[in-house]
Design a protein that fits this description.
With 365 residues, this protein is mostly helical. The termini are far apart. It is built from 14 helices and two strands. A two-stranded parallel ribbon has the order 1-2. It is extended and about 85 Å long. The protein has three domains: 30 residues, no CATH class; 246 residues, no CATH class; 67 residues, no CATH class.
């Protein structure tokens, strides 16, 4: 049965380990199957579905800059990039960010995945690896490659000496734009951010500039030849610092506009109709939390009432005011902003009414 299925899951039990040895995944108890399918299985499909499309995007965006250069130069066989720099593209500058994405990305929380099994249909329905979606990524990669090549190539200006800028300047500018574009494109589809995302996304761009600092400062270079001091000369021109942000922005603009549209009007597009369940669950948790806070603020015994009144008096002394509850609230808000009195403002608001009631009772007596 395991061998005939698409994916085999074996449960280690008293029957032996034969099923586990022939399975793709092994679990210790049958109850773990829920997490394996609804949580980790669904997250894995979501990550792989986006990562596969992104792999094609970043490689098409890089390769077609070379193709466009071959077209405009009449297929002369020259390259605007160094061969060693091309080899480093997938090895150093664009590999680690997508690995970080594939390890940590998630579109919904663990609790939503477990308590809303209908969201699991994302994988069986194959919503992220459709032919249409794949070719949309390819079309966007063609557009990005065109922008990465055309804007630096058409923006070649004259150096202060009157000579045209060298070909290496154009190649380095295109490669810089390429790395910036593919990194920003990955950050656009990233939903779950951690410190690792910031470190490695930004680090991939910083690594490229660090490579230029070291490589082109050596007369013979470590990996390249004939490019001594090229990056330093390029960075001294306005051409580079104007072209890189402009070309990067134009190349990434369609993806950015589409991302803004989705976030505003259809944030859970890939979930189809199930996104309403996620929103309803979030609203339900918020109502439950508010109800819990409200119940927690109501004194249940006379002893608790006296204790909370004492808390109010202590807060008044810490704030250093006796001009009424309005000033106390402002002082408590200040302390709360520093993290010293969590939920003090809510408690003070509740006890404000209780204090007035107590004063009225004392006046009657």
């Amino acid at each position: 049965m395991i061998q005939r299925g698409d994916i085999g899951v074996g449960v280690q039990g008293v029957e032996g380990s034969q099923a586990v040895n022939n399975a793709d995944f092994a679990i210790g108890q049958f109850q773990h199957l829920r997490n394996l399918l609804l949580v980790h299985g669904r997250w894995a499909y979501f990550r792989i579905g986006n990562a596969v499309c992104y792999f094609f995007y970043k490689n098409i965006a890089q390769v077609f800059t070379v193709m466009w250069y071959a077209v405009v130069t009449g297929f002369s066989g020259t390259l605007q990039y160094s061969d060693q720099i091309l080899c480093h593209y997938n090895l150093l500058y664009t590999s680690i960010p997508v690995i970080i994405y594939a390890l940590f990305e998630r579109d919904i929380s663990y609790e939503d995945s477990v308590e809303l099994p209908s969201l699991y249909t994302l994988g069986p329905a194959n919503r992220l690896l459709t032919t249409f979606r794949f070719f949309m990524w390819v079309a966007e990669a063609f557009y990005a490659a065109t922008c990465i090549f055309a804007l630096p190539y058409m923006a070649i200006s004259l150096a202060p000496s009157g000579h045209t800028l060298p070909l290496a300047f154009t190649g380095l500018t295109m490669f810089t734009v390429n790395i910036v574009v593919v990194t920003v494109r990955l950050s656009i589809i990233t939903l779950s951010w951690t410190c690792y995302h910031f470190i490695f996304y930004i680090g991939s761009v910083v690594l490229w500039f660090a490579f230029q600092l070291i490589e082109f400062a050596l007369p013979n270079g470590l990996f390249t030849s004939g490019m001594y001091w090229d990056s330093y000369n390029l960075w001294s021109t306005a051409f580079f610092w104007l072209c890189v942000p402009l070309a990067s922005w134009v190349a990434i603009l369609p993806a950015f506009v589409y991302k803004c549209y989705k976030d505003c009007f259809d944030p859970y597009e890939h979930l189809s109709g199930s996104w309403r369940l996620v929103e309803e669950r979030k609203a339900s948790r918020k109502r439950a939390a508010n109800q819990h806070v409200a119940e927690d603020l109501v004194p249940k015994t006379p002893h608790e009432f006296v204790r909370r009144k004492t808390q109010i008096d202590r807060i008044k002394n810490e704030v250093g005011t006796s001009e009424g509850y309005g000033d106390v609230e402002r002082g408590v808000a200040f302390l709360q902003g520093k993290g010293k009195l969590k939920r003090a403002v809510d408690k003070l608001s509740a006890m404000r009414t209780l204090g007035r009631t107590d004063s009225d009772d004392s006046g009657r007596k």
